[in-house]
Design a protein that fits this description.
By secondary structure, the protein is mainly alpha-helical. Helices cover about 80% and strands about 0% of the residues. It contains 14 helices and no strands. Helix 11 packs antiparallel against helix 12. The longest helix is centred in the first third of the chain and has 33 residues. It is elongated.
Length: about 280
């Protein structure tokens, strides 16, 4: 039997479905906005509940990857639950690999791995991000990789990673940090001449960078350890009034002066006065 209303009932049903979908989308967007307000207001459990609801009810929707990212961020930064944070980031990377949130999640996961001491896993994530990055971002991830090797006490590999940055771009904004940390690796290994060389480069080529003062302190330590007490003393005196924690520098100056017999009241100083 032919339906008297023809195809109009199908049109009506389509409009009803679209209306329901629109209501559902509006409801989820309202939930997302409420979750954002809860997150901003420090109501983290409420925000987490709303974000989870959005992902569960519309996993293929445009708000799902944003909500999944927020879940990882909440677990990591506010609820101190590293395990759930890693799970949330893993779901995001597996389910929404092409989303803008995926790269952000990988970076957050790398930072979390680093804090947990899983430096090789952090390196794997940073390596992926470096390959995807363009411009200065590539050097930034290269530097992060170097720092992970430094935390693992793999000083040689740390230097290799650092060297790649200035090899690719000698004028990189990271250059002062590259030479400073390179100097530090040599200092730790007892390669004091090379440490001094790199500390000196920071001071000479980047005198206005905050690390120039730190390089002077590092250079003084390397000179003192190598037996050049006079050189160490000159270096410390040159930055004593400019170094933020000048008391530390003054104390070190006093210690070296005492070793050299230049400090008032020392035996060597008393002997010189008698003569």
């Amino acid at each position: 039997m032919k339906c008297r209303c023809g195809g109009w009932w199908l049109v009506g049903l389509s409009f009803a479905v679209l209306a329901l979908h629109g209501c559902s989308e509006d409801g989820l967007r309202a939930d997302f906005e409420a979750a954002e307000l809860a997150l901003a207001g420090g109501r983290y459990i409420e925000a987490e509940r709303l974000y989870r609801r959005i992902v569960k009810e519309d996993p293929a929707g445009p708000l799902a990857p944003k909500s999944q990212y927020r879940l990882g961020f909440i677990y990591d930064h506010y609820l101190d639950d590293a395990s759930r944070a890693l799970d949330a980031y893993e779901v995001l990377l597996g389910s929404y690999p092409g989303s803008p949130e995926a790269a952000e999640a990988r970076g957050r996961r790398a930072e979390l791995y680093s804090r947990l001491g899983a430096h090789r896993k952090a390196i794997e994530d940073y390596q992926v991000l470096k390959e995807l990055a363009r411009g200065p971002g590539k050097a930034d991830y290269q530097f992060r990789i170097a720092m992970e090797y430094l935390k693992m006490n793999d000083l040689r590999q740390a230097r290799i990673e650092l060297g790649e940055i200035v090899k690719a771009d000698p004028a990189s904004e990271l250059a002062p940090r590259v030479y400073f940390h390179t100097a530090s690796t040599y200092y730790i290994e007892g390669e004091l001449a090379r440490a001094v060389e790199n500390y000196e480069r920071v001071m000479r080529d980047f005198p206005d960078d905050p690390l120039a003062l730190e390089a002077a302190i590092g250079m003084a330590a390397a000179l003192e350890e190598s037996g050049d007490l006079e050189g160490a003393l000159r270096m410390l005196r040159s930055v004593e009034k400019r170094y933020p924690n000048s008391g530390v520098v003054t104390t070190r100056i006093g210690r070296i002066e005492k070793r050299l017999g230049k400090r008032p009241g020392s035996k060597a100083e008393k002997g010189r006065r008698r003569r």
